[in-house]
């Protein structure tokens, strides 16, 4: 029986953060699946095309990866997503992988980072000792956000952080709450300095430009304009060994798709 483990992420075109985040998680999952051959896929065709054109790096999307595994004669596939919430990308991926259940003897599909109640608790425990959580300054986390009904994951995360005694606010680039809501609440408390930290797998374009860039609409610029000093931390979640371990756990404990 030929067995494969397929790790799927959105991807990134930033080489340095890819090595420290996506690749680091992939290596841990690969190590946990002894006897399985390792494969990767990205869900962003834009990033796939950019890497191929710019760097000569060829990476499959999920459909290409599953077709390849089927053609190579694999009968069992363990699929682990590196998505953060059960949003549009995650649900699209699950639908894509589910369409292959009649071609393989067994397919398992692991949960994203935030799925059940324990996932939120474990994630808070992982990040509260990580970069930017020094216990001195209020933390502002930038999540990606979504128009999907799972947008409630972000305020839920903030609730868990506060329940754990962490002085933090969670905002999103696309969705709710946005930076305006975060600023309003910071000013209500007269907060004068915050640590800006990405709540994303990689510290890519959103973190480096939308959060920490010098443009007037970046979170750093908006906060500074409101008289709030910012300390920038460009560390993706994938750099955190405890976050890596959560993804490994999700892969090992994944349910079988029917």
TrEMBL record:
Pfam entry (one): CbiK
Q: Which Gene3D superfamilies match?
A: 3.40.50.1400
**GO MF terms held by the record:** metal ion binding; sirohydrochlorin cobaltochelatase activity
Where on this chain does Co(2+) bind? 10, 144, 174, 206
Q: Name one GO biological process term.
A: anaerobic cobalamin biosynthetic process
Positions contributing to substrate binding = 85-92, 201-202
The annotated active site, in chain numbering, is 144
What InterPro entries does the record point to? Anaerobic_Co-chelatase, Sirohydro_Cobaltochel/CbiX
Q: Which UniProt keywords are given for this protein, alphabetically ordered?
A: Cobalt, Metal-binding
Q: What is this protein called?
A: Sirohydrochlorin cobaltochelatase
Q: Identify the species of origin.
A: Peptacetobacter hominis
């Amino acid at each position: 029986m030929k067995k494969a483990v397929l790790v799927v992420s959105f991807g990134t075109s930033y080489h340095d953060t890819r090595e420290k985040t996506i690749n680091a998680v992939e290596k841990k999952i690969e190590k946990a699946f002894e006897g399985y051959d390792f494969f990767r896929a990205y869900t962003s065709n834009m990033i796939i095309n950019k890497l191929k054109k710019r760097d000569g790096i060829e990476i499959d999307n999920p459909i290409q990866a599953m077709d390849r595994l089927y053609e190579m004669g694999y009968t069992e596939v363990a699929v682990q997503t590196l998505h953060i919430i059960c949003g549009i990308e995650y649900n699209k991926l699950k639908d894509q992988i589910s369409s292959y259940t009649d071609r393989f003897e067994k397919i398992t599909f692991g949960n994203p980072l935030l799925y059940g109640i324990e996932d939120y608790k474990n994630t808070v425990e992982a990040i509260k000792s990580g970069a930017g959580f020094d216990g001195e300054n209020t933390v502002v986390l930038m999540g990606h956000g979504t128009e999907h009904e799972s947008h409630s994951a972000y305020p839920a995360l903030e609730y868990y952080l506060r329940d754990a005694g962490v002085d933090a606010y969670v905002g999103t680039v696309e969705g709710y709450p946005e930076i305006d809501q975060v600023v309003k609440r910071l000013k209500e408390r007269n907060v004068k300095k915050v640590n800006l930290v990405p709540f994303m797998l990689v510290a890519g374009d959103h973190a480096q430009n939308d959060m920490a860039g010098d443009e007037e609409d970046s979170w750093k610029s908006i906060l500074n304009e409101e008289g709030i000093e910012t300390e920038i931390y460009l560390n993706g979640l994938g750099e955190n060994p405890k976050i890596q371990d959560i993804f490994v756990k999700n892969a090992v404990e994944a349910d079988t798709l029917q």
